[in-house]
Write a structure and sequence with these properties.
This protein is of the alpha/beta class. The N and C termini lie far apart (51 Å). It contains 9 helices and 8 strands. The protein has a single domain, classed as TIM Barrel.
């Protein structure tokens, strides 16, 4: 006797459809992590700004064991940058957070902690992005304009959270992969230069969450990177000088794939 595959019971169809919709809304925007898709379809999200300017950005700080070295090097280079910071670290090291601003740099939101968004959690995302933005305002007295999620994974929940906080998501167009175990200063510089063009946004790290000192690779190559950018006739600075339009009070900005206005 042939057995027919049983259809999904009617009672389960609506909940399954709703779950699938939630999962799609969560995952689909994260496709912008792919560099080709981001540069082609969402250039502002890739941080493509004024063609004669390069935005220099750092993630994962502030960390008193490493961030001050970057600040000193940037001072010697007369260069300014955007630091995407973790809210928890800002509260742990408030004086360092204020020092970043005092030296002329820009603070932006990287999240509360460096967590991975495995499952949809819109309430958690909203809470953590809001807490991180509030930490920057409380510690440094400035309002952040930009948001870059940990690992660059911009889920639907994280995108919505940024919008509610009036933050514009910005990822990157060139990175150094400076966190990799076998990275070298020369390799980090080569990797950045491979994708860097005028108008691009560079991602490096001023802190190492693995506590293994991998940040030193980016620090070592930083002068050569900045000198090379300037030798090409380009200026270098923070996202605030890059020609991107910050999100307004309602967080309006470029929408991710699968995003539906409500």
């Amino acid at each position: 006797m042939k057995h027919r595959r049983e259809a999904i019971p009617t009672a389960f169809r609506a909940p399954l459809a709703a779950a699938a919709l939630v999962l799609t809304a969560h995952v689909a925007p994260a496709g912008t992590w792919l560099p080709g898709l981001r540069r082609t379809c969402f250039p502002a999200l890739a941080g493509l700004g004024r063609p004669h300017h390069v935005a220099l950005t750092f993630d994962d700080g502030p960390d008193p064991d490493s961030t001050p070295f970057f600040l000193d090097t940037l001072d010697r280079l007369s260069a300014r940058a955007t630091f995407f910071v973790l809210g928890r670290s800002m509260l742990r090291h408030p004086e360092l957070g204020r020092d970043i601003v005092r030296r002329g740099h820009e603070l932006a939101v990287h999240g509360w902690a460096h967590s991975r968004p495995w499952f949809p959690a819109a309430v958690r995302d909203a809470r953590e992005v809001s807490r991180a933005a509030a930490a920057i305002r409380t510690v440094a007295g400035v309002r952040p304009l930009w948001y870059r999620p940990p690992y660059g994974i911009l889920t639907g929940g994280r995108w919505a959270a940024a919008r509610r906080c009036g933050l514009r998501p910005v990822l990157w167009s060139a990175w150094g992969r400076d966190w990799e175990e076998d990275a070298t200063p020369e390799g980090v510089l080569t990797t950045v230069r491979r994708d860097l063009r005028g108008g691009g946004t560079v991602l490096l790290h001023d802190a190492d969450l693995s506590a293994s000192g991998r940040w030193a690779r980016a620090l070592t190559m930083l002068p050569e990177l900045v000198d090379g950018i300037r030798a090409a006739g380009l200026t270098v600075g923070p996202l605030a000088d890059h020609g991107l339009v910050p999100a307004g009070p309602g967080g309006r900005g470029q929408n991710p794939p699968g995003w539906a206005e409500r």
